[in-house]
From TrEMBL:
InterPro entries in UniProt: Romo1/Mgr2
Any Gene Ontology biological process: methylation
GO cellular component: TIM23 mitochondrial import inner membrane translocase complex
UniProt source species: Hibiscus syriacus (Rose of Sharon)
Keyword vocabulary terms for this entry: Membrane, Methyltransferase, Transferase, Transmembrane, Transmembrane helix
Stated family: Belongs to the MGR2 family.
Entry's Gene Ontology molecular function annotations: methyltransferase activity
Protein name, as recorded: Methyltransferase
Coarse class of the protein's main subcellular location: membrane
Membrane-spanning parts: 12-31, 51-70
Length: 74
């Protein structure tokens, strides 16, 4: 597979989006869990759900943006 292939670009976009989304989701989930006083071990579940959801959404959109950008030649 070529280094510049569209699949490689989309995969990299999804990976970077997932990493950024996971980091943002972890910070935001922690803030929300503390703010709304989520009890006990439910905090960990809440933070995990926020992290995974945010990572999935960021990854999806960055992957889609990479796919759209793949078709353009400059």
């Amino acid at each position: 597979m070529a280094r510049d292939s569209c699949l490689a670009r989309v995969t990299a976009g999804v990976a970077v989006g997932g990493a950024v989304g996971g980091a943002v989701g972890a910070v935001y989930g922690t803030y929300e869990a503390i703010r709304y006083k989520v009890p006990g071990l439910l905090k960990i579940r809440y933070i995990g759900q926020t992290t995974m959801g945010s990572a999935a959404i960021f990854g999806l959109f960055l992957g889609a943006g990479s796919l759209i950008h793949c078709g353009k030649s400059y």
